[in-house]
Write a structure and sequence with these properties.
Elements (H helix, E strand, L loop, with lengths): L8 H22 L2 H10 L15 H23 L7 H16 L18 H7 L11
Helix pairs in contact: 1-3, 3-4
């Protein structure tokens, strides 16, 4: 018999925040709006409730959060030094975290080559983001 600790609701919320950050801030820089909608349809970065590989344990929640944060950091680092390629260590770390995500049942079908060139500028990203309206009144 093995005792495991369940993830907390705060950890699950943090995973949700990281996933929404990818959809609202990172993906719009590299992909068009239609592609991002397709990612949502096929379940990119979505935790499947009936998936047996992600059990929602404390260890897995920390692993998923860490992988998402490392991937986010590497992509933002790459964006800042855009004319220069990433070093081999960062590229290997990126691939390792993608592999860990996929092993836990979080679908992330990308490689570093998918994030080579920026498709949208900062001011265009705000126009393509999925935002909920502040109110329902038309002015």
């Amino acid at each position: 018999m093995k005792i495991v600790y369940s993830s907390t609701s705060e950890q699950e919320q943090e995973i949700g925040k990281l996933v929404s950050y990818f959809y609202s801030s990172i993906f719009p820089k590299y992909f068009h709006f239609d592609e991002i909608l397709h990612f949502q349809e096929i379940g990119v970065l979505q935790v499947e409730k009936n998936c047996f590989t992600y059990c929602g344990t404390l260890k897995e929640a920390y692993q998923v959060m860490t992988c998402l944060q490392v991937i986010q950091f590497i992509l933002e680092k790459k964006e800042k030094q855009s004319p220069f390629p990433l070093d081999k260590q960062s590229a290997a770390l990126f691939m390792r975290n993608i592999s860990l995500l996929n092993d836990t049942g979080i679908f992330f079908p990308f490689f570093l080559d998918n994030f080579t060139s920026l498709k949208c500028k900062e001011n265009e990203i705000a126009l393509t983001m999925n935002c909920e309206p502040a109110n329902q009144y038309l002015i």
